[in-house]
Amino acid sequence: MEKRVRFKSAWLPWVLIAPQMAIVLVFFFWPAGQTLYQSLIQQDAFGTSTEFVGLENFRRLLADPSYLASFQTTAFFALMVAVLGIGLALLLAVFADRVTRGALLYRTLLIWPYAVAPAVAGVLWIFMFSPPMGVVSHALQSLGFTWDHLLNADHAMALIVMAAIWKQISYNFLFFLAGLQSIPRSLIEAAAIDGARPWRRFWTIQFPLLSPTAFFLLVINMVYAFFDTFAVVDATTHGGPGKSTATLVYKVYYDGFKALDMGGSAAQSAVLMLVVIALTVVQFRYVEKKVNY
Questions:
Q1: Which of 147, 153, 163 is CA-nearest to residue 72?
Q2: What is the CA radius of gyration of the chain?
Q3: Is residue 114 part of a domain?
Q4: For the chain, what is the domain count?
Q5: 283 in a domain, yes or no?
Q6: Residue 46 is assigned to a structural domain of this protein
Q7: Confidence class of residue 32 from pLDDT cuts 50, 70 and 90?
Q8: What sequence ranges are listed for the domain ABC transmembrane type-1 (predicted)?
Q9: Which of 15, 143, 241, 265 has the most beta carbons within 10 angstroms of its beta carbon?
Q10: 172-176, 189-193, 227-231, 242-246: lowest mean pLDDT where?
């Protein structure tokens, strides 16, 4: 029998959600409104004079080659982080799900990176790949491969991709492992009795049942790559060499806090917000159709 809760007072539901609504308004809608307002004005570095310029900040952005190039950089970076991060996490989750001895130890070690702050993760990877003293760069040099992310743009991009994936892989691993453990073992055993090999059992049974989890992680990882990787980029490459690793979110920070172009930085924030919203809508509109719930 279905049970329904009825509030005696019409104001009680609004009182219960008031704290959450206050947080959303203060920390989400108010900053978003301020960003839209500041994107339409131009002010000096000290904020003493303000001039309404309308869409001029957006026109300057579209005419800036470096800003347009950051779109390509961000798209490549986000694609690598999302695809490789999800793929590696799924592979680790499959292996961890099959481990019988020491499973708790393996899972704990795989979860630990998520507790590391993004800036700390960037510092760890910069130390490992630092050309004069990094352990990994020294090992690569002994194999005849010269690593230098300070001068080589491809090396710098590879570095921030690896650091960002390592930071997020624990999050993806947790969801995939939980999804694998929720699949009834009777389905796997029945397929094994019918003669299906491990790869076929995974591709025809486990992976389709994991599609809702994979779709959720795809959306989360794209948002993560666009927004939450600023600290990784800032701690490793500072957007260099040149501007080869200057993603959209890093360029917002650089133009606003270093170049002191507040109006242009606010316009970039507005564009970035619209891009992520549009990308999320497209994912729900087209990619979700292939998800089996």
A1: 153
A2: 24
A3: yes
A4: 1
A5: yes
A6: no
A7: confident
A8: 71-283
A9: 265
A10: 189-193
Mean pLDDT of 130-153: 87
What's 52-71 look like in SS3? ECCCHHHHHHHCCHHHHHHH
Residue burial 218-243, b: 16+ Cβ < 10 Å; e: rest: bbbbbebbbebbbbbbbbbbebbbeb
Q: What Å distances lie between residue 144 and 92, 139, 140, 147, CA to CA? A: 30, 9, 7, 10
pLDDT of residue 250: 94
Contacts of 149 (CB under 8 A, 6+ apart): 129, 131, 155, 156, 158, 159, 236, 237, 241
Q: What is the pLDDT of residues 107-117, one digit of tens each?
A: 888 888 888 88
Q: What's the CA gap between 82 and 222, in Å, rounded?
A: 6
Report the length, in residues, of the chain.
293
Residue 183 makes CB contacts below 8 A (sequence gap 6+) with 205, 206, 209, 210
**CATH label of the domain that carries residue 105:** 1.10.3720.10
Q: Which of 286, 270, 121 is nearest to 218 (CA)?
A: 286
DSSP 211-255: HHHHHHHHHHHHHIIIIITHHHHHHHTTT-STTTT--HHHHHHII
Assigned token pair, 50: 């303000």
**Is 101 a domain residue?**
yes
Please list the residues that pair with 51 across neighbouring strands. Answer: 42
Q: What percent of the chain has pLDDT over 90?
A: 35
Q: What is the pLDDT of residues 215-255, one digit of tens each?
A: 889 989 999 999 889 999 999 999 989 889 999 999 999 98
The predicted pLDDT at position 231 comes to 92
Decide: 151 and 245 in contact? Cβ < 8 Å. no
Q: Which domain holds residue 211?
A: 57-290
Measured between alpha carbons, how far is 94 from 101 in angstroms, rounded to an integer? Answer: 15
